[in-house]
Amino acid sequence: FPEKPDYCFLDEDSGLCRGYMTRYFYNNQSKKCEGFKYGGCLGNQNNFESLEQCKKTCEDSVFEHLSSQQTNKQASKQQTEVLPRCI
């Protein structure tokens, strides 16, 4: 199963510059992407221009959905292998 990139676990970091841009980071405490104000330089990789981009990259639901799809495929494959054939 795919795993979250390591930078999803980094803390929010607004950087050292004084810009005031809305960005999004993955909050590992709430397990959700949240907005923050980014200064415009430095900071870290847990910094996304859109909420959608953050969610796609870091939120658990994406990974849970992928792993449940995989589990469902395996379960249905096992089920069809076990069912007897009707003639």
TrEMBL record:
<dbReference type="InterPro" id="IPR036880">
    <property type="entry name" value="Kunitz_BPTI_sf"/>
</dbReference>
<dbReference type="InterPro" id="IPR050098">
    <property type="entry name" value="TFPI/VKTCI-like"/>
</dbReference>
<dbReference type="GO" id="GO:0004867">
    <property type="term" value="F:serine-type endopeptidase inhibitor activity"/>
</dbReference>
<dbReference type="InterPro" id="IPR020901">
    <property type="entry name" value="Prtase_inh_Kunz-CS"/>
</dbReference>
<keyword id="KW-0722">Serine protease inhibitor</keyword>
<feature type="compositionally biased region" description="Polar residues">
    <location>
        <begin position="67"/>
        <end position="81"/>
    </location>
</feature>
<dbReference type="GO" id="GO:0005615">
    <property type="term" value="C:extracellular space"/>
</dbReference>
<protein>
    <recommendedName>
        <fullName>BPTI/Kunitz inhibitor domain-containing protein</fullName>
    </recommendedName>
</protein>
<feature type="domain" description="BPTI/Kunitz inhibitor">
    <location>
        <begin position="8"/>
        <end position="58"/>
    </location>
</feature>
<keyword id="KW-1015">Disulfide bond</keyword>
<dbReference type="InterPro" id="IPR002223">
    <property type="entry name" value="Kunitz_BPTI"/>
</dbReference>
<keyword id="KW-0964">Secreted</keyword>
<feature type="region of interest" description="Disordered">
    <location>
        <begin position="67"/>
        <end position="87"/>
    </location>
</feature>
<keyword id="KW-0646">Protease inhibitor</keyword>
<dbReference type="Pfam" id="PF00014">
    <property type="entry name" value="Kunitz_BPTI"/>
</dbReference>
